[in-house]
Each structure stands twice: as C-alpha cells, then as structure tokens.
C-alpha cells in the first residue's frame, strides 16, 4: 500500500457497486455490511425477501475479476441469533474463497464470535481494525488504534451512508452513497497525535439496507470518530453509486432536491 510513493495509487469506488478498489498494481476489493441473516428477520415478520445471500454472493464473485484480494469491513452477519447464519456463513465464505486468494475480515458490532463460523483461510483482525501502509481498515464502531490513525486514509462501514431526495411532487426516496470526509488537523479529544487525511465511508453491501440518510439525520450515532468530531462531516462529499457527485453534505441539508418524478406515469 505504497500510496505515499506511488502516484498511481487509487481509492476508487467501483461503478454501480457498493465496493471500493484500493491500491495500484496489487489492488484490494473492500466491502462492508453484508448483514447475512437480515432476510430471516424480514421473513419472521411475514415479509418474504429470499435470495439476498445468493444475490450478494454472485455480485462479490463478479468483483473478483477486479482483484483476487477481498476485505470485508464488518457486519458480515446481521444478528448473532439469526436463524440459519451458522450454516449460511461457512458455505458463503467457502465459495468466496474459491474466487479470492485472500479474504480479510474486520469484525463489526454484529459479528460476535463469528470466527467459529469461518473457514480457517479467512484472516480475522481485531475489531478495532488494521493498518496496511497508508490505508487503515475499520468497521467504524470502535476507536481505531494509534497506528491506524497514522495512515492517510481510514476506510470504514457501520454507518450505511445514504442520501434522501425529495422530488418535484414532494415525495421522498433514499439512495445509497459514498461519504468522503476530511479529518481535522488536530484531534480535539487529545487521544491521537496524528490524524488521517480522509475517512471513506462505504455504503452497505446488503441490497435490503438503503441506509441512513445523512442529510436527514446528520452525524448522530455514527461511531466514535464522528461522534467525537475528529472529522468535518458537513464538508464530507457525497457520491451516488453511479459516480454522480452531489456536493458536500452541508449543501444537501436538510434534504436534496431532485427533478426525478418517482413513480410518475
């Protein structure tokens, strides 16, 4: 991860996927918040939304054409008590290992004791995350380590970033988005001696999770980095999955306007 010495180093969203390509020659695919077992919760309430695990598996296998190295930033599982996660997760991850040379997992707040369900080839990191050169990887629900904050970029999930639009008829809808947020020059809490340049928040991979509209809810409850104002969320840049740049968060408050006629015709 020699981004300080390599002008070709990139952190680039993969168009129309909630997935990030990181690196130059030796790239990584980074995703977050699969929440396997979420469909079980829906079905327990009488709403059938089957096929989500299969859909995500197919999409992640497709991304292997970009890189043979996969990093999952937490919440692989939806709930510890999910009905069949104990059988779904081993087979899900084993099939991914047929397509990826390496898989790294940073456990999220939903992933307690998940190591028991994983194939041995999956590398499980501490819940705080890990650092690889100038890039650090976290779920986002815990404080990063000092070493992680010495990188240039902090990648995280957990927040499920999205933006809410209101069309010309006053109807609202929500779309997933990327959230790229500058850090402050100094840590206001005094916890860290240095801070990264930017946090990149990855949208939830699970298609059932549109996310939390940042322009509706602001930065409330978004983990310690945001909650303790180590970043400038109002200056954070919003991008849709298709690459559309929406501008900074402060320009999209309280909700973004859209000319789309949702459901028109």
UniProtKB/TrEMBL annotation:
Entry GO MF terms: hydrolase activity
Matches recorded under Pfam families: Metallophos
Domain Calcineurin-like phosphoesterase stretches: 28-123
Protein name listed in UniProt: Metallophosphoesterase
